[in-house]
Design goal:
The complex is a heterodimer of chains A (about 375) and B (about 575).
Chain A lengths: L1 H30 L8 H29 L10 H34 L15 H30 L8 E8 L2 E6 L25 H24 L3 H27 L2 H6 L4 E3 L2 E4 L4 E7 L4 E5 L4 E5 L5 E5 L5 H8 L6 E5 L11 E7 L1 H9 L4 H4 L2
Helix pairs in contact in A: 2-3, 3-4, 5-6
Chain B lengths: L10 H6 L4 H31 L6 H7 L10 H37 L7 H20 L30 H30 L12 H32 L10 E2 L2 E2 L7 H35 L6 H15 L14 H13 L1 H15 L8 H23 L2 H7 L3 H31 L5 H19 L2 H6 L19 H31 L64
Antiparallel strand pairs in B: 1-2
Helix pairs in contact in B: 2-4, 2-5, 2-17, 4-5, 4-6, 4-7, 4-8, 4-14, 5-6, 6-7, 7-8, 7-9, 8-9, 8-12, 8-14, 9-11, 11-12, 12-14, 12-15, 14-15, 15-17
The chains are: A alpha+beta (about 375), B mainly alpha (about 575).
Chain lengths: ~375, ~575
């Protein structure tokens, strides 16, 4: 009933506005004013409105900034993030200055030169000198900005000195994240999506995984063979035979993969640690390596100024150094419950909005303690 | 020359299957407007979801049926809405609805031709667009839903029906629709280029062309060179989806099953898509900029400041637009060196854009400004072009993009340049050339009301998004309540939604004005805006062949407004030079 009344109210309002407009039109007709006539009064009103809008627009910018500044991200929790934030301040400062000059000029000139029947415009068609100036000045300013920006980018992307970096893998899938640590050898073992199954959620390629998964498949093969022998219904038997073929194929895939993968990488995988939380030691260089199981995801850690797509079939990575522990950030933000987080930032399906990974930055000692309590991959296969 | 050959016209040949460029322009406009209203309603729906995430809503239940059980919007439907909203707005409204309408309407009229080089190809261009629109709309009604992987439809999400329901039949229909759409654009673009090069009337050299013509000409070339690459991206995607190829797919496990595809890369798709995707946004904005040049100049009673610089900047923007595409891909994991190259080229493109903005502002200076609704929207375009263009400088800087890529900062940026600037150009064009299309005037007061409500609510919708983005809020999120870090942003989200609803409501003033004026608007005079360009020398009642007698010849450039020594404050292009008068 309410909806109907609202609809009726809207229709009546539209008709009412239409009638009011009609009255204005008729009044104009009587006065001999055409729709294409823009009267001095029209220009005066609109000119003043433009000036008012310009002023209010600038004021609203200051108000929004003042009101919402505290909602922006806190201080950078990574080393390179400090450089990014500085570059951002300079760049924002620059564009804000240009904004605060050009917009008022635009709206002021619109007001100042609002039309009057007794005025004439000036026939000024061009000025080559001024064109050169306002081409060269932006070009110079932008060049400086580019050079500075590219230096920052090169430093961030510099992978020449990784020998001390802690290597950690972040594995994305619809709709969660898994983390794999490289273990004692600081060497992330081989992995392949075809090894994903059961306990082996990220497809680690190792002897223990191969043994366990092959054994499981052989058990299933044996069971299915028995079922096939006992199956009387021809259709169902055909289906079971198809399943059997798939299992055999899977077994072959795994064995072919294990024989093709470098032995050292297979061995390196045994001490990997697969968990659901990302712990990071503060002030150490971290190399996050990303993989995706199904579609493109993006590992976004806004507090660290880190973002990198996770692309199926491709290895991507990001190197950074966290500088503020979770505890310290809680004090910094005045928020007892603060947690660092890793979000998905590339549309990946229905639950894209809720792909979370808790990130904890702690002292190296706490980090090592936590790591030593986790189950090593080889052990999890027993 | 103008007796187009008497032929019997029936309803169908005059209004439906017309080959007359003026009718085809109106067809593009009406179809574009329809798609725009649909896309706008979608945006209101998903903004309501964002303001009150997970809250049951009677409107959802009414409009979305099974996709909103208990009145709560399904997350897949949310993603479908944002996908189709983007697709409709970028392609169907701002490309076909903007270029299609005004290129068709104005090119023959402003260059002094009886019609396009090929009226038949022109009609075909519209009908491909129409069929494309129908297919896209049909995809909204199927059971598994329309395409939902974002308007950019990156694989593997868009390649695998198992990844999301919308990637099933809905995605197939999207791909078919877009292939037909590109066909339409190419047919149109070829026609525009050929017509402008070959059918200009006597005396109309390229340097005497109105800036609108330059803009449409360069835009058409941009489209011809870049749209086919989208087709190649789409074709390879169709192959991966339906013929077992692995252009974009490799090492994937989905829904527990390992796929057999090996060797492909989704990044290939991104390169192919954005090779069109970036020029596409300039295909959207350049016509709007060209229209603005005309409207600002006419209504300032002053020449456009810096005609040659304006032409040069259109060319500069067009050329540079081909070499900036990977600024959409900075954090895909592509080589950082590539990132540097594209940062460099992207920041360069700011220079010709800045030149245009300065020239518009200087045209206003010492003018005698006539504030028609079209003029107001053109001034609004300059304001929003500056705002949106400036934030582009942040996004184009790869180091800064790391933390704002795919956040609301990007959403704010592209809506201000496309959803505000380009749409304002389209609206300005409609207000300004309505008398030429329908022989009647739109209501001025309603136009003023429409402008003011729109610019206030539109800035109110999209400006706050920059703050949301700097706070780290990702785009394409069904709900912002899953992460505590975004709880403090809910107030801003609600303001955005309220402004969006107001903005959407304001457009109905325009729609009412538009349709009412077609039938009951005040009859127009021949040259209501006292403009110099040739379209205003045609009779008010439109005729085939445009001019009843000889096509006028051109003796001057289009910007002799308030020229010293003239009787009036404008001298149309077809008026010969007086004795002793110098051509500008």
């Amino acid at each position: 009933m309410t909806e109907l009344l609202i609809l009726v109210a809207i229709v009546v309002a539209v008709i009412a506005i239409g009638q009011v407009v009609r009255i204005f039109e008729l009044a104009n007709k009587i006065k001999g004013i055409k729709e294409s006539d823009i009267t001095d009064k029209d220009n005066d009103t609109q000119g003043k409105l433009l000036l008012t809008f310009g002023i209010l627009f600038m004021a609203s910018f200051f108000i929004m900034t003042a009101k919402w500044n505290h909602l922006l991200l806190p201080v950078s929790a990574s080393e390179h993030g400090v450089d990014i934030d500085f570059l951002m301040s300079i760049s924002m400062g620059l564009i804000i200055v240009v904004f605060l000059i050009t917009q008022p000029v635009l709206f002021y000139l619109s007001y100042r030169y609002r039309g009057r029947k007794d005025r004439t415009a000036s026939f000024i068609s061009h000025n080559d000198k001024v064109e050169i100036i306002w081409t060269a000045v932006p070009a110079i300013v932008l060049t400086v900005l580019i050079v500075y920006g590219l230096q920052t980018w090169s430093n961030i992307m510099d992978r020449s000195d990784l020998k001390d970096a802690v290597v950690i893998e972040v594995y994305g899938q619809q709709f969660n994240w898994t983390v794999r640590y490289a273990g004692e050898d600081n060497n992330l073992g081989a992995s392949n999506v075809r090894f994903v199954g059961g306990i082996n959620t990220v497809g680690v390629v190792s002897e223990s995984a191969y043994t366990k998964q092959t054994a499981d498949i052989e058990k299933n093969i044996a069971n299915t063979k028995i079922q096939i022998a006992e199956e009387l219904n021809a259709n169902k038997r055909v289906k079971k035979e198809a399943r059997l073929a798939k299992m055999e194929a899977k077994k072959n895939t795994l064995s072919s993969l294990i024989s093709r993968t470098p032995k050292d990488l297979i061995a390196a995988a045994e001490d990997d640690i697969v968990v659901k939380e990302l712990h990071l030691p503060v002030n150490k260089s971290i190399q996050l390596k990303f993989r995706s199981q199904d579609v493109i995801h993006s590992a976004y850690m806004p507090h660290f100024r880190v973002q990198m797509n996770c692309v199926p079939g491709m290895n991507t990575d990001f190197v950074f150094k966290p500088t503020i522990t979770t505890e310290e950030m809680r004090i910094e933000t005045g928020n007892e419950a603060f947690e660092y987080v890793l979000l998905c930032n590339k549309i990946c399906g229905a639950a894209h909005y809720n792909m979370q990974l808790k990130v904890i930055v702690e002292s190296e000692e706490d980090y090592n303690n936590w790591l030593s309590e986790q189950t090593v991959f080889a052990a999890s296969n027993n | 020359m103008s007796e187009h050959g008497h032929h019997e016209e029936n309803f169908f040949s005059k209004y439906v299957f017309s080959t007359d460029h003026k009718m085809i322009a109106k067809q593009f406009l009406l179809t574009g407007m329809t798609m725009g209203v649909i896309a706008m309603i979608m945006s209101v729906l998903f903004r309501i979801q964002l303001a009150n995430p997970g809250e049951p809503n009677a409107l959802f239940e009414f409009l979305l049926g099974d996709w909103a059980e208990g009145g709560v919007m399904d997350p897949n439907m949310y993603l479908a809405l944002v996908t189709i909203h983007g697709t409709l707005m970028v392609f169907f409204v701002l490309t076909a609805g903007l270029s299609g309408t005004f290129s068709n309407l104005l090119i023959p009229l402003q260059i002094g031709a009886v019609d396009m080089a090929s009226g038949f190809l022109n009609a075909l261009s519209y009908w491909f667009f129409f069929i494309s629109s129908v297919i896209m709309l049909i995809s909204l009604g199927i059971e598994t839903g329309p395409a939902s992987g974002g308007w950019t439809i990156y694989p593997p999400l868009s390649a695998l029906p198992q990844a999301m329901p919308g990637s099933g039949l809905g995605m197939t229909l999207w791909l078919i629709s877009m292939t037909l759409f590109v066909t339409s654009s190419l047919l149109g673009g070829l026609n525009y280029v050929v017509t402008i090069l070959n059918l200009r009337t006597e005396g109309l050299s390229m340097t005497r062309l109105p800036l609108t013509m330059w803009a449409f000409f360069i835009t058409a070339i941009l489209g011809i060179l870049s749209f086919p690459v989208l087709v190649s991206a789409v074709l390879l995607l169709i192959f991966d989806r339906s013929f077992g190829t692995s252009f974009y797919l490799s090492d994937i496990m989905i829904q527990g099953e390992v796929l057999s595809n090996v060797g492909g890369s989704p990044i290939l798709y991104e390169h192919l898509f954005w090779f069109l995707g970036h020029p596409e946004v300039y295909i959207v904005i350049l016509p709007a900029l060209g229209i603005t040049s005309e409207i600002i100049s006419t209504n300032s009673r002053k020449p456009i400041f810096g005609y040659r610089a304006m032409v040069g900047s259109i060319m500069g923007i067009a050329f540079l637009s081909f070499i900036v595409w990977a600024h959409h891909m900075f954090i895909t994991g592509m080589s950082p060196f590539l990132g540097s190259v594209f940062t460099f080229t992207t920041l360069l493109i700011a220079i010709p854009s800045a030149v245009k903005a300065f020239n518009y502002i200087t045209t206003l200076w010492k003018g005698n400004l006539q504030f028609t609704p079209a003029m107001l929207f053109s001034i609004g375009l300059v304001s929003t072009f500056i705002t949106g263009g400036l934030t582009g400088i942040i996004l184009g800087d790869s180091a800064l993009d790391i933390n704002v890529h795919d956040t609301y900062f990007v959403v704010g940026h592209f809506h201000i340049v496309m959803g505000l600037s380009a749409i304002f150009g389209m609206l300005a064009g409609v207000y300004h050339w309505f008398p030429k299309m329908y022989g009647r005037m739109m209501n001025k007061k309603l136009g003023y009301a429409h402008f003011w409500l729109t610019i206030v609510s539109a800035y109110g919708t999209f400006f706050p998004m920059h703050y949301l983005g700097l706070a780290g809020l990702p785009r394409r999120y069904y709900s912002n309540s899953a992460f505590p870090m975004f709880d403090g942003l809910q107030d801003i989200n609600q303001i955005v939604t309220v402004c969006a609803i107001l903005g959407a409501a304001a457009q109905f003033i325009f729609l009412y004005n538009f349709f009412y004026s077609i039938f009951r608007g005040e009859e127009s005079v021949q040259n209501p805006w006292k403009s110099n360009t040739l379209e205003w020398t045609t009779p008010v009642a439109r005729i085939h062949g445009n001019w009843p007698g000889e096509i006028p010849s051109v003796y001057r450039w289009p910007y002799d407004y308030s020229k010293p020594g003239a009787d009036q404050d404008f001298i149309p292009q077809n008026v010969p030079l007086k004795d002793g008068e110098e051509e500008h």
